[in-house]
């Protein structure tokens, strides 16, 4: 069967299923989404929620955007509640601004998921966010390292009274407090938008030539400040932000193109939000609080992250096109609902194949991105990357050429096999791994670092901890036995590393 014919048949199957689903029955679940503002970050998140809803029958999403107006958001929440929603997802404009509206929704028996920004209300069902304090702290440490412990910083803050702005500010200043020669010379009040950041920096009366780093609480704030420096043709400092979005105007691309020196991925995870909402509505177990994983974006890893995110975006665009085509077919098939049983079964099977393939591909890409984020989390420079008194001999041009021709997937498979074969060897060193791969120590480090963003030592530790997790779940072995089996020289050190990696101790896993 030709690919085009198969594609048309799959599309027809999609249309038939949608036609049957749209036979007049009301949605099983109606979910209201109250966004405090409209921007690229929230547009991406809304798109993810819509995309995820396609994989669940009978879900209707009702969106409302307050455009940074707390009074408007209160009215919109009340209106969503009155419209008959069964669950509310809300990003509060400010901590205290919409407390009363959230309380009213909750008191009417409507579950409430608060995401991205905190609220003073205690009446919510679940909370989802990344660690804004940690983002600010790690960005502060990054700024200190880029300034070599001495310099002047201009900070453009987010919306006053919003929890991300407060926490990013505190984390950033806590990091700088350890380095008195790095000074924040001014803090300018922004509101997350690029035009406001541009204006407050433009109105700043100080000498912009004295600024070494601009830290914007988000990427748009940093870019707004950058325009002022360009217009005045003064010395260009480093510009750092937070959001790290993919896409044409996202922070990852801006870092890659040297418009920003660094950003920090602030995950949108609209798919996770919708799945959490459905778990709550269906009475399934769910976490009260969910902390999302994030990572620093620099020029060293921006290109890899951008390739991954662009692939996800491409798949999403393809599915959007398919949905638009399906809508067109639905109009044509509105009067053609009589289809033979055998044809319907065949179409259903083909449709299931397409969905399963897409889900598999999506989970594979998500897993790759998650591994990248986890590898990037530790900002310490590994010992192998630090210069020594006797530097390693540089590989020859012939060796470099040979390594450049080695396909990266094959290299990773070989490296994984070598690591797993000697996982229990506590004396295993980078030199041993390099020898097993027929590489020099320098070649191995560079190749692994370029592909994964981590050092061989970090990947070895991660592999051991993952094996340990499996053994804890699948066997009755003691923690000590498992620690020695996966190459740790002391159970106490295994416990410490395990808790740092997974957030729980090995004994917590065994107790479940």
Summarize the structure.
The protein has 20 helices and twelve strands.
Describe the structure in your own words.
The chain has 512 residues and is α/β, with parallel strands linked by helices. The chain folds into 3 domains: 3-128 and 269-291 and 306-375, 3-Layer(aba) Sandwich (Rossmann fold); 132-264, 3-Layer(aba) Sandwich (Rossmann fold), CATH 3.40.50; 393-511, Homeodomain-like (Arc Repressor Mutant, subunit A, Orthogonal Bundle). Helices cover 54% and strands 11% of the residues. The strands form 3 sheets. Strands 2-1-3-4-5-11 form a 6-stranded parallel beta sheet, sandwiched between helices. A 4-stranded parallel beta sheet has the order 7-6-8-9. A two-stranded antiparallel ribbon has the order 10-12. Helix 4 links the parallel strand 3 (87-90) and strand 4 (112-115). The radius of gyration is 26 Å and the shape is globular.
Per CATH, the class of the largest domain reads Alpha Beta
Which blocks of ≥5 consecutive residues have pLDDT under 50? 1-7, 20-25, 365-370, 372-406
Determine the strand fraction and express it as a percent band.
5-15%
Question: How many distinct domains?
Answer: 3
Question: SS-based structural class?
Answer: alpha/beta
- The CATH topology of the largest domain corresponds to Rossmann fold
Helix content: 40-55%
CATH homologous superfamily title of the largest domain: Response regulator
Strand order of the largest sheet: 2-1-3-4-5-11
Tell me, rounded to a whole number, the average pLDDT. 80
What shape does the CA trace take? globular
Describe the main β-sheet briefly: 6 strands, parallel
């Amino acid at each position: 069967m030709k690919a085009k014919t198969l594609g048309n048949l799959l599309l027809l199957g999609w249309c038939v299923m949608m036609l049957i689903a749209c036979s007049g029955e009301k949605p099983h679940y109606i979910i209201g989404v109250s966004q405090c503002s409209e921007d690229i970050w929230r547009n991406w998140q809304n798109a993810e929620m819509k995309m995820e809803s396609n994989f669940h029958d009978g879900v209707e999403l009702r969106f409302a955007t307050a455009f940074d107006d707390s009074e408007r958001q209160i009215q919109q929440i009340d209106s969503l509640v009155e419209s008959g929603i069964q669950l509310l997802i809300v990003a509060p404009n400010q901590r205290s601004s919409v407390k009363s509206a959230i309380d009213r929704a909750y008191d009417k028996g409507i579950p409430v998921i608060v995401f991205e920004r905190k609220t003073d209300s205690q009446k919510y069902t679940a909370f989802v966010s990344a660690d804004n304090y940690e983002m600010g702290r790690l960005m502060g440490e990054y700024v200190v390292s880029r300034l070599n412990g001495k310099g002047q910083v201009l900070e453009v803050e987010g919306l006053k009274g919003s929890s991300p702005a407060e926490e990013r500010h505190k984390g950033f200043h806590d990091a700088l407090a350890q380095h008195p020669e790095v000074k924040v010379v001014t803090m300018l009040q922004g509101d997350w938008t690029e035009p406001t950041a541009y204006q407050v920096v433009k109105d700043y009366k100080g000498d912009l030539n004295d600024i070494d780093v601009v830290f914007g609480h988000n990427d748009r704030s940093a870019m707004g400040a950058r325009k002022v420096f360009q217009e005045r043709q003064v010395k260009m400092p480093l510009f750092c932000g937070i959001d790290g979005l993919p896409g044409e105007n996202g922070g990852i691309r801006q870092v890659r193109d040297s418009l920003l020196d660094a950003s920090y991925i602030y995950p949108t995870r609209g798919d996770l939000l919708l799945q959490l909402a459905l778990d709550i509505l269906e009475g399934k177990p769910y976490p009260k609080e969910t902390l999302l994983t994030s990572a620093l974006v620099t020029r060293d890893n921006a290109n890899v992250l951008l390739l991954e995110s662009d692939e996800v975006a491409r798949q999403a665009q393809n599915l959007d096109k398919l949905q638009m085509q399906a809508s067109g077919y639905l109009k044509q098939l509105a009067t053609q609902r009589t289809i033979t049983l055998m044809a319907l079964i065949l179409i259903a099977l083909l449709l299931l194949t397409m969905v399963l393939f897409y889900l598999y591909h999506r989970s594979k890409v998500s897993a790759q991105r998650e591994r990248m984020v986890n590898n990037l989390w530790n900002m310490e420079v590994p010992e192998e990357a630090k210069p020594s008194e006797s530097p390693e001999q540089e590989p020859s041009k012939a060796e470099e050429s040979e390594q450049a021709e080695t396909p990266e997937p094959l290299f990773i498979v070989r490296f994984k096999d070598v690591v797993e074969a000697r996982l229990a060897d506590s004396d295993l060193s980078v030199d041993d791994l390099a020898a097993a791969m027929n590489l020099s120590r320098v070649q191995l480090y560079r190749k692994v670092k370029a592909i994964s963003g981590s050092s061989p030592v970090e990947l070895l530790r991660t592999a051991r901890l993952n094996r340990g997790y499996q053994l804890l779940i699948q066997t009755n072995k003691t923690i000590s036995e498992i620690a020695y089996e996966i190459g740790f020289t002391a159970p106490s050190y295994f416990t410490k590393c395990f808790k740092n990696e997974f957030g729980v101790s090995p004994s917590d896993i065994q107790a479940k």
